[in-house]
Write a structure and sequence with these properties.
Elements: H1 30-34, E1 42-45, H2 51-54, E2 55-56, E3 61-62, E4 64-65, E5 80-81, H3 100-112
Antiparallel strand pairs: 1-4, 1-5, 2-3
């Protein structure tokens, strides 16, 4: 191994199991990663242990409450706020030009890795 000044991206093996995404965990699903306009500004996941309830197999990642403050009582420490410094979820727009069918096909492919 030789140290470099660059960032070494992790491999895509089992990427479906590594949500949330981006370096700071600001994107809850691969579907959101591939369509930057759909990324939630605020979200909260359940932190449950039942993956049939907590994992979004279609969008590949965590099911989330995308408007947690509207739900009444909540624990603010568990709300991801992308407006905070270092918590941003913008950039990485490489999936935006894809058509909806191409994006879906890519998600299906990523599930197989």
């Amino acid at each position: 191994m030789v140290a470099t000044k660059g960032y070494v991206a992790p491999p895509l093996d089992e990427v479906w199991a590594t949500a949330p995404y981006l370096h700071n965990g600001s994107v809850p699903t691969l579907g959101d990663l591939l369509d930057s306009e759909q990324r939630p500004d605020h979200w909260r996941r359940s932190f449950g242990t039942d993956l049939t309830k907590d994992y979004d197999c279609e969008r590949v990642g965590w099911k989330t409450d995308r408007d947690p403050e509207a739900q009444g009582a909540f624990d603010a420490r568990r709300i991801y706020d992308s407006a905070k410094p270092g918590y941003g979820n913008r950039g990485h727009t490489f999936g935006d030009p894809l058509s909806a069918s191409d994006r879906k096909a890519l998600l299906e492919y990523l599930k197989t890795l």
